């Protein structure tokens, strides 16, 4: 499933000059499946990329996309699910969502989405500014562009929210953008396969690090980048670009060297597989202590979800990592819905 904007744009780019329509969630009142700034693309032949709901709205949005192409006018839509007796769209979230639909064309420079794709592929972080206009305005008059984050600006994180601002008599939707989450799995055994597969399902980028010949084989980790070098010989820039690291080579010496290499880097999450007594051995060999880590250090790795097979372990570690990266507490969904 395409989830991250860079993946969506990867699919769109080869045919971007065709009659695509952008649908963007501009405002939410109450609960919604997606948050403001979520983007979806529609093609006149019926193809769609991304999602704005759990399947409740997409069919209706596809119909409006055809109208946006035919009229070349902006379409503003409001879906109200606060009235439980209204079963028009069978929305399950109970909120009000506003969606703007715009035809992408040469006149509006495809709303700057080509530049957005280029920036994300370079690893840049920044703000995508999209003009919000009234229903019926010509699609040729609307603009969108990417503004790279300056060094002195607040960092663009996974929790940075989309804002609606007014500048020079224009209403702008400011959508924070950053590259997909990038995790490193240090150890290419078969028990790492479920972690890689689940992470890629979420749209995360995965790199497997393992210097051993019999491990990290390409056919075991399709879609992953594989590094066959000792961790200490890999460039600091590459390792610093990781959001999280999972250390799971099952070799004390390799794990200790990896941990010592990663400890000074600004990773938000590091996990070490194995029980407490093994953790202490690895820390002693690396000449480190629990207090030496600036980010979240999980050892034993993951949440106590039960289960012992690789799939359960992967779910446990990825769940904990996801919560750390999104600065979220483990609580029921009804307490965190918008």
Keywords:
5-stranded antiparallel β-sheet; alpha/beta; 338 residues; disordered C terminus; 6-stranded parallel β-sheet
Overview of this structure, please?
It is a single chain. Strands 12-11-10-13-14-15 form a 6-stranded parallel beta sheet, with helices on both faces. A 5-stranded antiparallel beta sheet has the order 3-2-1-5-4, with helices on both faces. The chain is α/β, with parallel strands linked by helices and 338 residues long. It has helices at 5-12, 58-71, 113-122, 193-201, 236-240, 252-262, 276-286, 310-325, and strands at 21-29, 39-42, 48-50, 75-80, 96-103, 126-132, 144-148, 163-167, 170-177, 182-186, 205-209, 225-227, 244-247, 269-272, 296-298. Helix content is 25%, strand content 23%. The chain has 8 helices and 15 strands. The model is unreliable at 331-338 (pLDDT under 50). Strand 2 (39-42) and strand 3 (48-50) form a beta hairpin. The longest helix is centred in the last third of the chain and has 16 residues, at 310-325.
List the total number of helices.
Answer: 8
> Rg, please?
22 Å
Portion of residues within helices: 10-25%
Whole-Å distance between the termini?
23 Å
How many extended strands? 15
Structural class: alpha/beta
Please state how the strands of the largest beta sheet are arranged side by side: 12-11-10-13-14-15
The proportion of residues in beta strands is 15-25%
Oligomer: single chain
